[in-house]
Write a structure and sequence with these properties.
The protein is α/β, with parallel strands linked by helices. It contains 20 helices and 23 strands. It has a 6-stranded mixed β-sheet with strand order 9-6-5-13-22-21. Strands 15, 16, 17, 18 and 19 form a 5-stranded antiparallel β-sheet that branches. Strands 4-12-11-10 form a 4-stranded mixed β-sheet, covered by helices on one side. Helix 18 crosses helix 19. The protein binds flavin-adenine dinucleotide. Its EC number is 1.3.99.33.
Amino acid sequence: MGLFVKKRTMWAVGILSIFLLVGSGCQTDEKRANEVKSGTYSATTKGFHADVGVEVTVDDKGKITELVADVGGETPELGGEAGPKVAKEIIEKQSLDIEAVSGASITSKAVVDATETALKESGMDTEKLKGKKQTAGENEEITTDIVVVGAGASGTAAAAAAIDGGAKVVMLEKTKDVGGISKFFAGGPFAVESHLQKEAGKEYDIKKEDVLQTLNDYAHYINYGPLTKAIVYKSGDTIEWMEKWGVDFHVNEETPQIAHQDDDMKWRLYHWYDLFSYEPTDKAAIDVVHEKLADAGLEVKFNTTAEKLLKDKEGNVIGVEATKEDGSKLTVHAKSVILGTGGFAGNPDMMEEYYNTDALGQWGEDGAGVKMAWDAGAAKWDTASSLLHGNGMVAPSKESDVTLSTSPFNQIVRSPLLWIDRGGNRYCNEEAVWDTALSSNAAYSVGGIYYIVVDKATLDSYTKGKPLVMDTAVGGPNMDKADFVELAEEGVKQGIITKGETVEELAKGLDVEKSTLQTTVEDYNTAVKTKEDAYGKSKDSLVYGVEEGPFYAVKMQISNLGTLGGVRVNDKLQATDENLKPISGLYVVGNDAAGFYGNNTAYPPYEGLATGFAWNSGRIAGEDASSRLKE
Ligand SMILES: Cc1cc2nc3c(=O)[nH]c(=O)nc-3n(C[C@H](O)[C@H](O)[C@H](O)COP(=O)(O)OP(=O)(O)OC[C@H]3O[C@@H](n4cnc5c(N)ncnc54)[C@H](O)[C@@H]3O)c2cc1C
């Protein structure tokens, strides 16, 4: 599994604001204007990681002329980008009826809600700005064979397989585009015994039964064996099937993950899309499939959010109810519903309930599909499985510099230096940094937050270009020359790094027991001197002790790339109840489905697993649902 994040800081922040003059042709509601007092109003509401603030200016005609959204505390790639987009749209449309930005629905909603609160201060009737009542179109009812919810990899595969099986398919997608998170980050799926591996030579000759056994072993058999088997055994053929749908792949000749290099299974299963994109606007592999799907007759209803499953008296799922962009309802009657809505990592309440910590990142959806399936009687299962992947510096405030974590200081983050938890204790062999999954799993073991502790002498060595062997995933760290003490001091100024002239002072700054931190540091220094470490760190990484003040502690946090469970399914991806009895007519795929990993949060370090699961689970569900039409 490779990590593909944009080469910007994960957690650093900045104020993002929009100043936009509205064109003179813009309509203003006269009635609304009469009630409005011109001026600038502000309000704050809870976002995902932090409060979201707005400052909105209205003129005496009730026109919104300026809107500044402060989303500085949100994840830059998600809420940080969504905030200005939503603010711009509010001004352009003079409306609060704004579609949430995919992957950042909480921040999007926070900007809208805060704007509404601020506008109310001006005396404006904000109900009118929501506009749904005035603009709602006709409610609509349609009938099809299979309805797929979600246009990510899992939903797309389900639709393609169902069409292959001769079914008439309608797809509902809440955003205006296809692809979901599947479109622009994941490099591609894992696959076993594909034709590409056979052509690539004997190092790629890895057997299905060995992969299945390895995954079962990794999960201690807590995974649902029949499902893991079905996915692994399907995966090789899925490559050829996807090629038929227009996707080209290649297998890697090397892996950037140091910890994977001696284990073929960890990386030689990864099948990279030839057409890969870091940006949602670029064309990616999934777009090619959708072009072919459109030719094959797939109807995608965009800006349409599925909300509720329809059931008959016997408990069979017979369709889905959705809301369209204009607020009107769409009811789709179908023989089967396939839910592929991307999990619930973007739902802070669910994350807190199932993960016992709010210290995980924000990637992911709001759990709509998972909740719909539960409401329809599907069993809750494996609710704490996640794609924990990579760690980033934590920026405490909007003043923090967005560039520190992409600066050469990232070499410190990617090195096996001393890591401590919030209690001041060391907790693992820091060489876990060479595997993006394992380093996150280790960080989860201490609640998702940890500190990297270094002294000035270590920073001086990095300045001289003498780093330890570093993690090289996602292009590796910035290797430019730099003064690391200067960078650390900058981090201290911004509140990203805690500094102490002595270990005691550092302990005070971190709010940990002085004696605990002193013992941790002494033990670590002994390990460095003797080259013997109780956690098993290798001699080559036992180079830098923590001896000479000043001392620095860099606050770090896990990045969670999505939840990987929630709804119990069988090997056909049918949702099942607690007794493993299928709920007729309901399939759950991709990040919404439980059981493949059985990971209880510890994500297995095999490249391409999650994307592979998305495509293969969708394909199996689409095949099964379409085959049942003939019954
Ligand atoms: C940064 C990042 C890097 C990653 N890198 C890798 C990697 O290298 N290898 C790997 O294997 N995996 C990787 N993954 C994980 C992988 O991308 C996902 O597990 C997989 O793409 C999930 O696919 P999906 O179809 O389940 O969900 P998604 O792609 O999230 O699709 C869900 C779709 O459902 C729509 N939707 C949600 N709710 C509704 C609703 N109520 N009504 C209608 N539509 C709805 C959404 O808008 C979205 O389009 C990465 C993930 C991230 C975030």
